[in-house]
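Weekly structure sync, notes
Attendees: PL (lead), two postdocs, one rotation student
Agenda item 3: pending single-chain targets
PL asked that the sequence for the first pending target be pasted directly into the notes so everyone works from the same version. It is reproduced below exactly as submitted, 266 residues in total.
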Amino acid sequence: MGQVVKQVMEQGAGIITRRSARLSGWVDRMVWVGGGSEQARAVYPDIYPVMGIQSVGQVSQVVGEVERPLAAAGLTGLHRELKWFRSSADCSTVLVYFRPEALFAWRIGDPRELVGTSYSLFDLGVGDWERERFGDARLSAEPERFLDLVEDLLWRQLKDRELDPWAEWMVDRIVYSGGSVRIEQLAEEAVLSRRQLERKFGERIGLAPKAFSQLVRFRRSMGTLAGEGRLAELAVEGDYYDQAHWVKDFKRHAGMTPGMVRRRLE
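Predicted structure, written out during the meeting:
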């Protein structure tokens, strides 16, 4: 089974992170979250589509004063704005963080239609997920078994499929550049026009290369906020023209300035 790389248990709440060797090309990590009190949590934009599966409890998306219950097994595509979710106190959840190019190769749905929204896996044609043993309340007390079950099911779904080498290369090219590589340069390296690049990339990832690059840069900024550097210095490190440009781009994704998010993280 996968290697457990991080485990935290405190105040009745638990988090276990697993990285699976056999799913490494498809999945960045799997995270079990359980216990604790009912709470709303902010989910900032990231480069990973996320699958959430509950054995018990309920997760809802919070939009203003409205809570929209989510399916017990569902998929949330890439999103470019802050989202809020609320979990019930008894909730036991496995979150699967897919690589950006994985959904296209899995053929589970059109990545472009998944952007900014969540779907039940049943609606995406993977009905067996909601009829499997996820409803077993005992899984809330056996997180390793829950992770094993999800990993096994994913492996059965993916083992005979192949990832798109072009999409893997393009995603890695943008990520390793920190989101700073120019779109014109990507098009030249791919031997495509800019329009052809945007169409091909969008079909596989769900976003245009520029929008995805902005997510990568935002993710990088979120990582630096945990440090002690001055905001002006972080803007330079993020390869932004100036601090005002960084703040504008950051606020577009987080709904808050970097300073406000840093205070929330402290």
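Discussion points:
- The chain has ten helices and eleven strands.
- Confidence is low (pLDDT under 50) at residues 1-12.
Action: rotation student to compare against the earlier draft before next sync.
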